[in-house]
Amino acid sequence: MELKTFKGGLHPPDNKAWSEKKAIEVCPLAEGDELVILLSQHIGAPAEACVKKGDFVKKGQVIATPKGFVSVPIHASTSGEVISVEPRLGTAGTKVPAVVIKADGQDTWDENLSGADPDTLTAQEIKDRIRDAGIVGMGGATFPTHVKLSPPEDKKIDHLILNGVECEPYLTADHRLMLEDPDNIIGGILILKKVLGVEKAIIGIEANKPDAIELMTKACAGRGIEVGALKVQYPQGAEKQLIYALTGREVPSGGLPMDCGCVVQNVGTAAAVNDAVRRGIPLIERIATVSGSAVNEPKNLRIKIGQPLGKLVEFCGGAKGELGKIIQGGPMMGMAAVSLDVPATRGTSGVLLFSEGQVLKEPEGPCVRCGNCVRACPAFILPTEIAFKTKKGMIDEAEKLNAMDCIECGSCTYICPARIPLIQYLRQAKGAIIAKRRKV
Amino acid sequence: MDKTLYISSSPHVHEGGTTAKAMRDVIYALLPCVALWIYSFGIIKPSVVMALCIIGCMASEAAWEKVRGLPITIGDGSAAMTGILLALNMPPNSPWWMALLGGVAAIVIGKQVFGGLGYNPFNPALIGRTVLLISFPVQMTTWMMPRTHEITSATPLSDVKIAVGLTGNIPDEIKAQLGSVLFGGFGGQLGVVSGFALIAGGCYLIYRKVITWHIPVSFIGSAFVLSAIFWAVNSSKYPSPVFHLFTGGLMLGAFFMATDWVTTPITPKGMLIFGAGCGILTILIRLFGGYPEGVAFSILLMNSATPIIDRLTMPKKFGLVTQKG
């Protein structure tokens, strides 16, 4: 089979063998466990708490309502008592608004939740259900799904792209989901196709998951869904690179996938959409990979939103050796967490524990102009030149060098022998350019 | 948590390479050639020249950084590499003070005055060589025959240049000696005695991903094509392309000097242009210039064009291509 791909990028060791054969296990929740449910788990306006201390909530009940269009409600992940509504520690180390629930151990569903046959619903009704279920992009970016499904009238969408690439090393959550629950994904894809009114749906899967490619190809046969096998190359799962690999189309610079007729959704999002529409289940659980050299037994887990990362790690036999770093998400784009007390969110695709020895500590050296970053950059910009201008405060120059086209995949930084944190300078440049544009 | 954790921006993994590792790879790649060269020219004299070039480079780098209160960077291998390359660009029988002086010139004038590693516009080893060539033209062109160690001012390139200048033709005996050109049987600069040791070293660097194929291929390719055209037009006046590729410093230049990270373009397209420029200038200088050899000058000239090449070959960013489908 000819493998499709994009231009640029690189191939870090994927380290998926630690967890790819491990079937998804449910991370247990006991009576008395605390769930810390953050009110901003998505891109856009944070939700606003609609419960107060002392309230009893049921599993799936709305505990925070969205504010504005680009926002989603937040639900209770289990039944129990609200013990506080207060700022709690988030991944980045700052305190963010949260609802804390003490589980009653009964896990009683909210009886008001009900599913529907998508065939009897209009596209708008489906989108409302998706929003009400709090569905966001499950790949880690957590952009509200109903917004992505509502392109302006003048944007003609003809392709639905499903992201089953999982190009981040270590992570195997999407892989296991495709193997263990293909019908849920396909059900979701059919719903998404209906909402968008598109004929064509393609699932992109990297060639390091041959079992998933085979299974999904079989399961999709005759249902109007194609499977595209992709070369193992990071960042194959980046939206623009994935669209290019599967359709040959380039999202215009500064534009969105809808500008070239595409909508991209993660396979995990498709499964969540199916749950939400057909069964009425809101987004209160997700699949996450717990892995890394400092965890005893890497696993794929079905976790409840709000469980502290420490609980997940504990279920995987705890940390071993000298723990150096905790990462939420993948090693290329994930965020370092300040502590194991931080709760899992809707974007927690993985929890990686790195040993002390694995932590990068080399100091930044001078650029030796080797050109590695230029060859690796999938956006075809010159990371080192932009970093140089940014260091000197020459933001206009950085903008002229197309700093805004950076997708922050981290390939440049991964490959830089001088250990320059190029991506940090790129982010700094982008922030300064956005601030400057706002002022004008 | 009792334990302090590390917090940093993504990515949290790295390919593993460092500048120092890459420099070490370049030194390893040069070792076969260095060994062959030391052996061919009588072990002791060339060893002294090599050692003094390296010492000159490293000591002047350390001294400069010490005086300026900068961190001492001789551990990164870059100064040592410059020393080796400089030695391979000098006659093996050079006086000791010249080797030392060349090293100091390479590092101080060629590198540190611009701000050290990463900021020098010209290849430091070639700056060192050029300073010596201009200052001590006689010593810098007094070569030694490999194995016999006979002192001579003749190299295949200078023989051709003189003969063509006098008679308009290449003498038959030089044509006949093509085979020994290939295996370093001629007098010549240090390090150019064996094209094959250099090609092997270059391939190692490409395999290790320290350099890419772009510059060596376009350098050697353009030199081959241009010299082949002249040769086809008049083979009695212009030497064959094979002669050009395996004499002088062409292989050393193409694999080790024109691929210097700092002083060459960072875009793949720019690298191709850079290499082609080096190849064309080398042949033009050899055939029509005042010097028999043109590799060093052509690389230095192209070094000066690097910023503009980079600017003109800036890749077209993703998302500018006309829509398909």
Question: Which properties best describe this structure?
Answer:
heterodimer; A: 440 residues; alpha/beta; Rossmann fold; 6-stranded mixed sheet; 4-stranded antiparallel sheet; 13 helices; 17 strands; B: 325 residues; mainly alpha; two-stranded antiparallel ribbon
Please specify the SSE layout and strand pairing:
The complex is a heterodimer of chains A (440) and B (325).
Chain A: E1 25-26, E2 34-38, E3 48-49, E4 56-57, E5 62-65, E6 74-75, E7 80-89, E8 95-103, H1 123-132, H2 145-148, E9 159-163, H3 173-180, H4 182-196, E10 200-206, H5 210-220, E11 225-230, H6 239-247, E12 262-266, H7 267-279, E13 285-291, E14 299-304, H8 309-315, E15 323-328, E16 335-337, E17 350-355, H9 372-376, H10 383-391, H11 395-400, H12 411-415, H13 422-439
Parallel strand pairs in A: 1-14, 9-10, 9-12, 10-11, 13-17
Antiparallel strand pairs in A: 2-8, 3-5, 4-7, 5-6, 7-8, 13-14, 15-16, 15-17
Helix pairs in contact in A: 1-4, 3-5, 4-7, 10-13
Chain B: H1 19-40, H2 44-67, H3 78-88, H4 96-108, H5 124-135, H6 137-140, E1 143-144, E2 151-152, H7 156-167, H8 172-176, H9 178-182, H10 195-207, H11 214-233, H12 241-246, H13 250-257, H14 268-288, H15 295-312
Antiparallel strand pairs in B: 1-2
